[in-house]
Amino acid sequence: MTLLDGKVAVVTGAGQGIGAEIARELVAHGAQVVIADLDGDAAHSVAEELSGTGVACDVTSEEAMHALVADTVRAHGHLDLFVNNAGTTRDASLKKMSVADFDAVVTVHLRGTWLGVREASAVMREQKSGSIVNISSLSGKSGNPGQTNYSAAKAGIVGLTKAAAKEVAHHNVRINAVQPGLIRTPMTAAMPPEVFAEREAAVPMKRAGEPKEVAGAVVFLASELSSYITGTVLEVGGGRYM
Ligand code: NAP
Predict the structure, then answer these.
(1) Domains of the chain: which residue ranges?
(2) Is the CB of 209 within 6 Å of ligand 1?
(3) Which candidate, 85, 82, 137, 73, places its Cα nearest to that of 112?
(4) Is 150 a catalytic site residue?
(5) How far apart are CA 61 and CA 178, in angstroms?
(6) What separation in angstroms does the CA of 65 have from each of 27, 50, 114, 115, 120?
(7) Pocket test for ligand 1, best of 105, 142, 185 (most atoms within 8 A of CB)
(8) Which residues of the chain, if any, have pLDDT below 70?
(9) What is the CATH code for 8-183+212-234?
(10) E strand or H helix at 195, and its extent?
(11) Would you say the pTM of this structure is higher than 0.90?
(12) CB of 39 sitting under 6 A from ligand 1
């Protein structure tokens, strides 16, 4: 018997990076996984590798998020875990950031996570069971220069997680957040190498994290190992900002 035997999970933004690794770890622990991503080809390719289902889904679309949850329940009969992982960055100083850059980032992270929480919790509260994990960031705790949009959105995910967790706790639905630090993915590969090196040097463990190390925290929050844990924020940052 593995940790997630018989569980059905959805991971957004799972076509690459942390989301794809979360999907891999969930499958390794026995779950069936629906891989959703803006890029349908990327979602299908990860799904093929994991014998899961790949879906093109824009998390900012109310219709698409409703369909993602409804189709999963239609196909599998239940929904046990929903991971709001999709994310994007449009870094710029306050002097240079446009309203469009601010809105785009806040919309993907905050509206996307809120839609995922609303749709998934509606099913889970009827089932009287389920776990939702929202991927925030240590940037939302510490604030990163050049990321006023991203830091605001990631801090917002913490408030949303706690408010929603209080609303559905008595239905046996748990909602938690994970705050990764500096993790090696296509998102951070886009950073200037000197900025990456400077951030890595500031990590007490003296290295960036791997996507698998974030996925391990998600597996814990998804499973019965965390059955009495809700509304919390689990930091996966090698000791950064403790
Ligand atoms: P990534 O490699 O850029 O992957 C993010 C995925 O989300 C991409 O496949 C992207 O698709 C997808 N996505 C973007 N907008 C979407 C939308 N509207 N609907 C559906 N999917 C969308 O980034 P990552 O590093 O794995 O990050 C995953 C999560 O962890 C994000 O929430 C990020 O903010 C968070 N995080 C990352 C780090 C880090 O150091 N890497 C640290 C803290 C938190 P496209 O490629 O097609 O746009």
Answers:
(1) 8-183+212-234
(2) no
(3) 85
(4) yes
(5) 23
(6) 22, 22, 10, 7, 9
(7) 185
(8) 1
(9) 3.40.50.720
(10) helix 193-201
(11) yes
(12) yes
